[in-house]
Design a protein that fits this description.
Oligomer: single chain
CATH architecture of the largest domain: 3-Layer(aba) Sandwich
Radius of gyration: 20 Å
Number of helices: 9
Strand order of the largest sheet: 7-6-5-9-8-10
Low-confidence stretches: none
Length: about 250
């Protein structure tokens, strides 16, 4: 049976300030937990209503569905919840394609973008400091384990971009060059903007090339694409002509 202090701690990890103060985050679901167990992330504890993950009792506490519901951040709790330590951030690599996010706020969008980076072989994702926290439970859930394979850093985006003069900086703008006709480099910084406002003015000033995804519909009344959808299209185009081994 869970203690009140355990419940209070685990529930508090739904908020960024408590994740930061404790240096902990939660992962829910058997598949997601297995992904993190097979990675470099350090396990603190697992609370499960059945699956033991082959672990010793030091890390595992078997609980019933009622207790699992008390600590879950999901409307329909899964069969297990784990607590992991937030690792120290790794240095961002200076080669290849780097995706940067300028003020992306929706957890589902960030989780999907992390998964896309994993799929398309983007090792480094740089987020502005006002981008949603990658250890938000909804982000972790949406990333489907890809958080274990993508290096994510939160930095001052303008300073980071300015410190990479050798890399072209491409950003998505409505008036940009058609991405299907553009010559896309293997190594670059790709900037994706905020869901409502796009790329901020100070980052626009740092772009070396503006690209766009053209509309093909007969009635062109859609204002914009979802940022995760746009990221999927752009990464596909970057990789389509890439010289990187498939």
């Amino acid at each position: 049976m869970l203690s009140k202090s355990q419940i209070k701690l685990i529930k508090s990890l739904s908020q960024k300030k408590y994740r930061n103060s404790h240096g902990l985050f939660i992962v829910e679901g058997i598949k997601g937990i297995r992904e993190f167990l097979n990675s470099e992330f350090e396990l603190v504890s697992i609370y499960s209503s059945g699956e033991n993950f082959g672990l010793k009792d030091d890390y595992l506490e078997l609980i019933d569905d009622r207790d699992l519901k008390k600590i879950s951040s999901l409307k329909t709790p899964q069969k297990a919840l784990a607590v992991f330590k937030i690792p120290n951030p790794k240095q961002v690599g200076q080669k290849g394609l780097i995706v940067t996010l300028d003020g992306v706020r929706d957890p589902g969008n960030l989780g999907t973008i992390i998964r896309l980076c994993d799929w398309f072989g983007v090792e480094n994702l740089v987020c502005s400091r006002d981008t949603v926290d990658c250890y938000n439970p909804k982000v972790v859930q949406a990333s489907m384990g890809s958080l274990t394979r993508v290096n994510i850093q939160y930095l001052d985006l303008d300073e980071f971009i300015s410190a990479q003069p050798e890399l072209p900086v491409l950003g998505t703008m409505l008036e940009g060059e058609n991405v299907y006709k553009a010559n896309l480099p293997d190594a670059a910084i790709l900037v994706m903007g905020n869901e409502a406002n796009g790329i901020s003015d100070k980052i626009i000033d740092l772009l070396s090339k503006k690209i766009s995804i053209p509309q093909f519909g007969r009635i062109q009344e859609t204002e914009s694409l979802n940022v995760a959808t746009a990221t999927a299209i752009l990464l596909s185009e970057f990789r389509r002509g890439s010289s990187i081994e498939k």
